[in-house]
Amino acid sequence: MHGGSYGARMQPRLVVVGFGNVGQAIVRGAIQSGIAAPSEIGVIDIDPLRHAEAQALGLRAVQADAVAEAEFLVLAVKPQHFAQAVATLGSVAASGPLVVSVMAGVRGDAIRAALGGVARVVRAMPNTPAAVRRGITAVASDAKVPAADLERAEQLFASVGRTVRVPEPLFDAVTAVSGSGPAFVFRFLEAWTQAAEELGLPSETAAVLARETLIGSAALLDETREAPEVLRAKVTSKGGTTAAGITRFEDPAPRAGGLDALVSEALRAARDRGAELGR
Predict the structure, then answer these.
(1) Which of 278 and 20 is assigned the larger pLDDT?
(2) 95 with 203, same domain?
(3) What is the DSSP letter of 179?
(4) Measured between alpha carbons, how far is residue 47 from residues 43, 58, 76, 259 in Å?
(5) Where do the H-state alpha helices sit in 90-180?
(6) In this structure, is residue 1 part of a structural domain?
(7) pTM
(8) Do 146 and 217 belong together in one domain?
């Protein structure tokens, strides 16, 4: 991204390198929670379209020299672009800002080494619900990062949802569970909707029923704070339609068609059991 830099009195508190979906979510959360005003946030990105998106939020494009005096430097580029980002930053991030990385797979010690060996680095793994401030972010650091810095990073991500501390060796597991997790939920919803259509429901009706059931169930889980197995049991009567569908989910036998076939079988089993009970 090209643009003017901040003057001495307009040095950004927060600089985000990479203004994609995650970078934008972090910025919006920081603004809405009062962590930083738009005028206190700088963006570095090579894509001119991101420049316009930043300007729409009242942010400024900055050059690498703005990083040295910032409080936070958020690395929100894709892992394969990390080397290019570091080359752009040079050594200005070596000992100034707290470096917060949301890159999957790039270890904290590798980031520190690339930035000169002395940077304070916190790794974070948010997920896409951060865009609506309902994300869950795991954070990790090592002994070289003071506890106060880790707490500051947690405060930043608390602006887009909840946070948990996880040892860095478990970050690949975090990526699988919560980072990739929303895609798994959406993939299941796709199969659910398709299976509903196969039962004869119009496509629009099938989509609304499946979507709102998912959203309502998540809200119930959130508001009641009951364990999922407890909430499941409340819906599952012995010998009923729900039990018939769940039996299909728990069937260990392999099947062709993968998830789509499994979800379709479960819905058909529940439908057929309902028909049996109505006779």
Answers:
(1) 20
(2) no
(3) I
(4) 11, 17, 14, 37
(5) 108-114, 147-158, 171-174
(6) no
(7) 0.87
(8) no
